[in-house]
TrEMBL record, chain A:
InterPro entries: Helicase/UvrB_N, Helicase_ATP-bd, Helicase_C-like, P-loop_NTPase. The keyword ATP-binding applies. This is DEAD/DEAH box helicase. Residues 107-259 form the Helicase ATP-binding domain. The keyword Nucleotide-binding applies. The lineage of its organism: Bacteria, Bacillati, Bacillota, Bacilli, Lactobacillales. It comes from Levilactobacillus angrenensis. It comes from the Bacteria. Pfam families: Helicase_C, ResIII. Residues 292-438 form the Helicase C-terminal domain.
UniProtKB/TrEMBL annotation, chain B:
Keywords: Glycosyltransferase, Transferase. Pfam families: DZR_2, Pribosyltran. Belongs to the ComF/GntX family. Residues 170-224 form the Phosphoribosyltransferase domain. The keyword Transmembrane helix does not apply. This is Phosphoribosyltransferase family protein. InterPro entries: ComF/GntX_DNA_util-trans, DZR_2, PRTase-like, PRTase_dom. The keyword Transferase applies. One of its GO terms (molecular function) is glycosyltransferase activity.
Length: 438, 225
């Protein structure tokens, strides 16, 4: 006998029925002359056929292959969850006055079951602002998912939520997780894992909604809608909503709560723009902009630690060599495929290295107290507006060191850089009205 | 537009002068430049028996241990991290479209071999059911081949790729000859085709059966070593 709980609100593929009384739909459904994958929504191409004539979906292959011989089995979500009177909250912290205001607004929207965007600047304490709404949802016996496109965000968040809601059973789902699935009131997962759910959640909190790959993937956007109950709602969290989200806010299709101030009440550092003409050609010959060298040397002498962002992994060795020639040493380079990535980031946290040269992988989700940020080539297309604002947000995150420098070296005053500066300026204007200090 | 079958990135439809000069239909590729060079081809310095990439051209240690049964194998690519990733996605996740990555290199390699009959290593019934294809015949396009071998239906308790060397070498003969195989194989030069040469156990089992069927020579070609 299969465990019923494993099927509550899920869609699991089997070739033969795992248990009698389950609702089943074919995994690939013919819509007109084409087949559509019922898990990820992908339309099959004419070549997606196996040698035994079965069809298969290539898009969600990572979650286990679905073929036309499979069916998806589910039991509609029954909400057999405990209704905790206090929401299981064990968090002892206090919200600041402006966090309190935002939290009330979020709670009101969750109670009225409307979709909502929480636009809170980097370092505003987004997670904590959601707690009151989460407490209310859990006390109603709602099933809640907290999801993010980035696995590092999930992994960092899980212990925090575990500590804050110690009385709530939680499960963490991601690509190669070691624990088996459990039916819990609170599910923390990557957005990919939502593909295994169907009309399961009353509330879905999408953390870092503008991050790759969710921002560019129709499959994942569909997964969020599909995993949510028809009566449910979602709450989007971000510091840097993309143009699409901003448009929906402007058209009043999506309610929004702004938190323009960081939890310590200081404004965001503005990006200081420096034109470095033809920096890429110079870098190819092994030279960095003179002003950049001078600035970094000053940081080294003052003992100021910094992050240097470059556009591409291929630029890392060139920059590293140029820094070495200029006598700026004591740092390491980090990129996404780096095996020692975690150790290097930890070394930076522990102040064992003076600086990191890195790509956009460190744009969000990392906190180093008292760092300066330098961007080389901010006009490169890999730095989106959101990425630039996020990178600037690495500075001044701790209450002891609430300010710092963000310098961006570009060949030209690119549109994305201009928009990023504009976004910071606009948020700071709102922040100043609420009594923010520079 | 077209996307690379392996990495999914858009293929740039650049037409070169030499393609125009050839004055034929444009050759459509399914694989981008990066993915074409992701696998490491085996250079001329390899073991003359098993085709393993090494620094000299002497018979390697593993082949010396196979004293009794010499089998000449050629291999196309080194079995490195990239090849493992490919096999993982193609064979174990069952992404049949990835066969197109290696169809063209295999066509060129087969054109260099001299043989009369091509015999791909079969998959057993349970694997066929589960995977939906034979990973070896997937790489063949129009090349004629003979399914002269059958694999015993008893399902293996453990896949070959999950065993260590000693356990692999203890594997019993899994193959039998197909019904009409003896007529096809008599006095023919046979080329066996398989995906990975690891210890050589599978190919030697297959070669034994092919010789029993009356073939006069058996060599083998594998995608990876």
């Amino acid at each position: 006998m299969t465990n019923d709980e494993a099927f509550f609100g899920r869609q699991l593929p089997f070739q033969t029925a795992p248990a009698p009384d389950l609702t089943a739909t074919p995994a690939l459904k013919a819509m007109g002359s084409r087949l559509q994958c019922q898990r990820c929504g992908h339309w099959l191409g004419p070549q997606d056929q196996l040698a035994n004539q079965a069809w298969y979906c290539r898009q969600c292959l990572q979650l286990g292959r679905l073929t036309s011989q499979h069916k998806l089995y589910t039991i509609p979500e029954p909400n057999q969850l405990p209704k905790l009177p206090d929401g299981g909250l064990t968090w002892q912290g206090e919200l600041s006055a402006q966090q309190q205001v935002a939290a009330q607004s979020v709670l009101a929207h969750v109670q009225s079951q409307t979709n909502h965007l929480l636009w809170a600047v980097t370092g505003a304490g987004k997670t904590e602002i959601v707690y009151p709404a989460l407490v209310w949802a859990l006390s109603q016996g709602w099933r809640v998912a907290w999801t993010s496109p980035r696995v590092d965000v999930c992994l960092e968040l899980a212990p925090r939520l575990q500590a804050a809601f110690a009385n709530v059973a939680q499960t963490v789902l991601y690509g190669d997780q070691p624990q088996p699935y459990q039916y819990c009131p609170l599910t923390i997962c990557t957005t990919h894992q939502l593909l295994r759910f169907q009309a399961a959640f009353d509330l879905i909190v999408v953390d870092e909604v503008d991050a790759f790959p969710l921002a560019t993937s129709p499959m994942l956007k569909r997964a969020v809608d599909h995993a949510q109950k028809p009566t449910g709602c979602h709450l989007l969290l971000t510091a840097t909503p993309g143009e699409g989200l901003q448009r929906r806010v402007a058209r009043k299709e999506l309610a929004v709560t702004y938190v323009p101030l960081r939890y310590h009440g200081h404004l965001l550092p503005q990006i200081d723009l420096q034109i470095a003409w033809r920096w890429r050609e110079k870098l190819r010959h092994g030279h960095l902009p003179v002003r950049l060298i001078r600035q970094l040397r000053a940081y080294c002498q003052a003992g100021q630690r910094f992050l240097l962002f470059v556009p591409h992994v291929a630029d890392l060795p060139l920059v590293d060599r140029a820094l070495h020639l200029a006598g700026i040493t004591g740092g390491v380079t980090v990129h996404a495929a780096d095996e020692a990535r975690q150790e290097k980031v930890q070394a930076m946290r522990d102040r064992r290295v003076a600086f990191l040269v890195t790509t956009t992988i460190l744009e969000r989700g990392v906190t180093f107290p008292n760092v300066a940020v330098v961007i080389l080539g901010g006009d490169d297309p890999v730095f989106s507006t959101a990425a630039l604002v996020q990178i600037a947000g690495r500075v001044g995150r701790s209450a002891q060191f609430p300010t710092g420098d963000v310098t961006c070296y570009c060949h030209s005053y690119a549109r994305r850089v201009r928009l990023a500066r504009g976004m910071i300026a606009r948020l700071n204007l709102q922040g100043r009205r609420q009594g923010g200090r520079p | 537009m077209n996307a690379c079958v392996w990495c999914g990135r858009r293929l740039s439809g650049v037409v070169t002068v030499s393609q125009l000069w050839r004055w034929g239909p444009l050759v459509k590729t399914d694989v981008c430049q990066d993915c074409q060079t992701r696998l490491t081809p085996i250079s001329s310095q390899h073991c003359p028996q098993c085709g393993r990439q090494q620094t000299d051209e002497t018979v390697c240690h593993d082949c010396q241990r196979w004293a009794g049964q010499p089998l000449v194998n050629h291999a196309l690519y080194v079995y490195d991290a990239a090849m493992k990733a490919y096999m993982q996605q193609y064979k174990f996740q069952g992404d049949y479209a990835l066969r197109r990555v290696l169809q063209e290199p295999l066509r060129l390699a087969l054109a260099r071999e001299s043989y009369d009959i091509l015999v791909p290593i079969p998959v057993d019934q349970a694997t066929w059911q589960q995977r939906g294809f034979n990973q070896v015949t997937g790489w063949l396009q129009t090349q004629p081949f003979q399914q002269a071998l059958l694999v015993q239906a008893t399902h293996k308790d453990q896949p070959q790729s999950a065993k260590d060397r000693a356990a692999r070498l203890r594997t019993q003969q899994p193959f039998t000859l197909a019904l009409n195989a003896a007529d096809i194989l008599r006095d023919q030069r046979v080329l066996l085709l398989d995906d990975v040469y690891t210890t050589g156990r599978t190919l030697r089992h297959a070669a034994e059966q092919i010789y029993l069927g009356g073939a006069k020579a058996v060599t083998s070609l594998t995608l990876a070593r």
